[in-house]
Every structure is written in structure tokens, then in C-alpha cells.
Predict the structure.
Amino acid sequence: MNGIPNHVAIIMDGNGRWATRQGKKRTEGHYAGYKRLKKTALYILGKGVKYLSVFAFSTENFKRSEEEVNYLMDLFVTAFKSDLGFFVRNNVKVIFSGRIKPLSDKVLKVMEELIDETKDCTGGTFNICLNYGGQAELVDAAKKIAIDYKENNINLDDIDMNNFYKYLYQNLPPVDLMIRTSGELRISNFMLYSIAYAELYFTETCFPDFDEKEFDKALEAYNNRNITKGGVKEKK
């Protein structure tokens, strides 16, 4: 058995599809997805996973309809405000990955409040990828290195595949298990550097239905594989 993965990442896909199948508006699917996320995130961290990263909103999502984008931004503000105490009570440290622009001041403010209020929590780290893109993250990391070189005269030969992580949006360990819901078989520009050796798990289940049992299925699949670490296969 491989046990519990240290870092799990989830592409939370299928909220709109879930709503459409039930004759509801896409926005209702996003709300259902957020309610599911709260429950499932606590369950995953409660299983012993130390880091959970979720794809909440991509840089490309700004191309969606104005109505849907505005709804999602308002949902982030409302949810982060109302659930600040929820994360503190459950001892969950919340951080964010992604670009600041073009997020509004009200979104950024509530993000900062959530980060500050949970910074001392020790029950697991919840990394919300908002206005995030994997290629954008690598470009921004390259810019950070260039600035570090110019301002601090760092030795470029000292940068390797391990310490490169500190130039990403968050200095987190590599992803061990990446899950995508709703049946799509794509990475969709998510955590490209961090998932280099991650086990990939795809499920037909749309995210609003991705409950504790569905995560346990993913965990069982993970534990039935020969895990790759640094390109070397380890036996089950």
C-alpha cells in the first residue's frame, strides 16, 4: 500500500454540466460545487493529506460570459467572508495560487483576510488556485528568477529542479495524486511543474457529486498502483 498521498490536486470540473443535466442554471452548479468542496476538502485533509490544491478559476475562465464570471467573483467574495470562521474552527490554513490582475479589489481583500486569519492553522494546507494557469505560473517563475538574479546576484547554477518550487506561486511539495472530475481526460494547464510525477485519476462523476466515497475510490486506485518517484517505479 502507498498510503495517504502528501499532496492531492483536484480539477473541479463539471459544475455547469451537472446543473444543465438537472435543468438548472450553470450558476447553480457552481454554488453546489462550492458546497461540495467544503465537505470534501475537510474529509481529504482529515484522512491525513497535508496539502490540497483545487482549480477554482483559471486565467482562461475570464473568457466565459460576463454573467457567469461576475457570479463566480461574487461567490468567491461571499463564500470566503462567510466561511472564514469555518476554516479557522477546522484548523485549515488557506493560501492562494494565481495572478492578482485582473481580480477586483474586493476579491483580493477577502483573500488577504482569509490568508491572514488562517496563517497559524496546522490541520492541513488548502491551496485555492484562483485566476491560475500552469503556463502563466512558469512564466512568472522565470520573471522572479530574473529579478532575483538582478537584485540579489544569485548564482543561476544553484537553481535546480527541487528549489525551483520556491519560485512558483506557492512553495509546496510535488503533487502525488491529481484528480479530475466529469470525465474529461485533460490536464487543462493545471500545476504543470508540480504534477510531473503525479498519479492521474479521472472520474465521470461531476464535481458537485464528488463526495467522500468518490475520493475513497480515487485513493484506492492510487494505492493499487506502482508509484513513480523521480522516474523510478516503486512496488505496491
